[in-house]
Amino acid sequence: MARIDVAIPCYNAGRYLAQCIRSVLSQDIDDLRIIVIDNASTDDSVEVARRFAAEDSRIEIVRHARNLGPVASFNEGIDLARGDYFVILCADDLLADGSLRRAIDVLESNPTAVFAIGSELSMIDGEDFVEPSQPDRWRIREGAGFIEDCCRHLGLSLALGAVVVKTAAQKAAGHYRASLPHADDLEIALRLARLGCVVEFEGALGIRRLHPEQMTVVYFSDKLIQLKEREAVFNSFFTREGAAMREANRLHRIAMHRIGDAAYWSAISHLFRGKTAYGVELFRYCFSLTPLSRLFPPMGHFYRKKGTLKRALSVISGRVGSVANHAEDRA
After folding, report:
1. Crossing angle of helices 248-272 and 308-330, rounded to 10°
2. Hey, how many other C-beta atoms are within 10 angstroms of the C-beta on 84?
3. Where does residue 282 rank: exposed (0-12), middle (13-18), buried (19+ CB within 10 A)?
4. For residue range 9-26, what is the model confidence (pLDDT) as tens digits?
5. How far from the centroid of its chain's Cα atoms is residue 278's Cα?
6. Exposed, middle or buried: residue 275 (CB in 10 Å: 0-12, 13-18, 19+)?
7. Disulfide engineering: 180 pairs with which of 184, 273, 282, 285, CB 3.0-4.6 Å?
8. Is 233 exposed, middle or buried (0-12, 13-18, 19+ CB in 10 A)?
9. What DSSP state is assigned to residue 65?
10. Greater confidence, 182 or 311?
């Protein structure tokens, strides 16, 4: 039977940790090892982990005297992994029911595949959540095709909160990079895809908990930070591991153009909403990547990204309505 290690990095997530651990223990896996890596939590995280470890010998605890940051915990998990498969699961997230068994069964039967991803469910902290049953449908993607899709869509549709990786591939790909604090998971997925095929499940493998303390809240609320991090990811990949790809230059250009296109229309959106300074900043960033956008607006963005045109029309109509109401008030 396949052996699997699940590393759970934790910092002040005591109120979520028990549910996270239970979601792993409930998987249909016999040879399972859970490593809780606590980053000097000041709440009851360690006590929660110890209660579980006292009842189940498959649970180990690594406790840091000081907070080394999440990337250090991710990399420590990689170093400690010794099973056939490896998962990093943040302490505030969950595994979907049966996700490990589904992923491992497919990976075991497909020797060229190195990792499995799926869609992602979201649960809002404090609200009732009933996990829906997940479809078993999946497909195998060539690594090069997966990488090109990431370049064309900036990896924004990927659910990277629960990825099941063959441990040998994870160790070959190496550590997460601390220079990419917000999109390091995308960059390492690109590196892994260089090593083999990717299993893509239609159903979810993980459940992301949405709460105000999430590190990603600020990241996803600031479009410029998000786009610059994506730029850093693709620059890192295509100047290192991805440089050996046959079409590396073409794919790198595609990614930069897609980032520039997204910045252009985000700038337009901010200008229409009266956020002039930020809109100008986004335009400057766009033109640094795609100078021709000064002359030719990237209209293809509307056709590539689902819902973009609808959102744009909503912003425009909202702005027009606001101006009309203001004029009526002055009259």
Report:
1. 20
2. 17
3. buried
4. 999 999 999 999 999 999
5. 25
6. middle
7. 184
8. buried
9. S
10. 182
